[in-house]
Design brief:
mainly alpha; 83 residues
């Protein structure tokens, strides 16, 4: 499993430590894994719960795949340079 290191403000670290103790997480690593999975699931569910948004996302994916196939998608700046 890859190791990820990052810094957080002391105030946030104290809140996280308190939450870990209150909710019974075994470690900070477990807390952050849970937070990451929870966030990703929430994002996925938000998009999938709205049929119109889900349809638009699928349409954009399809058109992007058709237009660019496996080529690099140009940056927004490149795409809008002629406007």
């Amino acid at each position: 499993m890859p190791i990820i290191n990052f810094a957080i403000p002391t105030v946030l670290e104290k809140k996280i430590t308190q939450t870990i103790e209150q909710k019974g997480f075994s470690s900070k690593a477990e807390f952050f894994r849970f937070a990451a999975i929870s966030f990703l699931d929430q994002q996925s569910n938000e998009w999938n719960s709205d049929p119109e948004l889900s349809y638009l996302i699928q349409s954009i994916k399809k058109q992007t795949k058709i237009k660019f196939n496996k080529r690099k998608i140009p940056s927004v700046r490149e795409q809008l340079k002629d406007l």
